[in-house]
Specification:
With about 210 residues, this protein is mostly helical. It has one domain. About 70% of the residues lie in helices and about 0% in strands. The chain is built from six helices and no strands. α1 crosses α6. The N terminus is likely disordered.
Length: about 210
């Protein structure tokens, strides 16, 4: 009896996505629908957010990032503190009566106010840009997680299908072996010689 060979059919990726998201693909939001389409088409989802965003950033945004990086460092604090001390020493001790900004250093206060007024919006621009990058990173992480979960479900369905296929094949083998054993037992019983019920022992005649 020939064995029937079951051809394994891989599970549909679209059905896997529907099973995970528990909704029709057309009813999903645009971002989730894009993830499912990439999953079905076997396309990559992950991307380098910082590199892509830097390529599309303007000159002002790059300057804002640079100013924020310099202004938030100990080097800037020490240099700025040195400039303040030098300004006060110059106008209080070196120039003395010919100081261009004597105590209480009104010009210095004006310069500090101007620096703070300009620096604060620039740092806020950099923070807003960083917030946008963080949001894009979170969206990208979500897309990667959803696609990874879909791939895991797809792999699990494939393993279950292969297991069921092997189990069916083993059952068929067992049934064939049982049939072969039954035929063998039947053939052995039919070909066995008949055993006589009793044996007659001839008597010897005395001379």
């Amino acid at each position: 009896m020939p064995l029937s060979r079951h051809r394994y059919k891989a599970p549909d990726r679209l059905q896997t996505a529907r099973a995970l998201l528990q909704s029709e693909i057309e009813k999903l939001p645009e971002d989730e629908r894009a993830i499912v389409e990439r999953f079905v088409q076997r396309k990559q989802v992950s991307r380098n957010i910082v590199r892509d965003y830097d390529q599309s950033s303007s000159l002002g945004e790059r300057i804002a990032d640079r100013v924020a990086a310099i202004g938030g460092s100990w080097s800037f604090i020490l240099v700025f503190l040195g400039c303040l001390i030098g300004w006060m020493v110059l106008n209080s001790l070196v120039l003395a009566r010919d100081a261009f900004d004597p105590y209480p250093y009104i010009l210095l206060n004006l310069c500090l106010s101007c620096v703070a007024a300009i620096q604060a919006p620039i740092i806020m621009m950099s923070q807003n840009r960083q917030g946008t990058i963080d949001r894009l990173r979170a969206e990208n992480d979500y897309a990667v997680n959803v696609k990874a979960e879909l791939e895991i479900m797809q792999l699990q369905e494939k393993l279950n299908g292969l297991r069921d296929q092997d189990w069916t094949h083993l059952v068929e083998l067992q049934q064939q072996q049982i049939l072969m054993l039954q035929r063998l037992v039947t053939d052995l019983c039919g070909a066995a010689p008949a055993v006589p019920a009793s044996f007659d022992i001839p008597e010897q005649k005395s001379e």
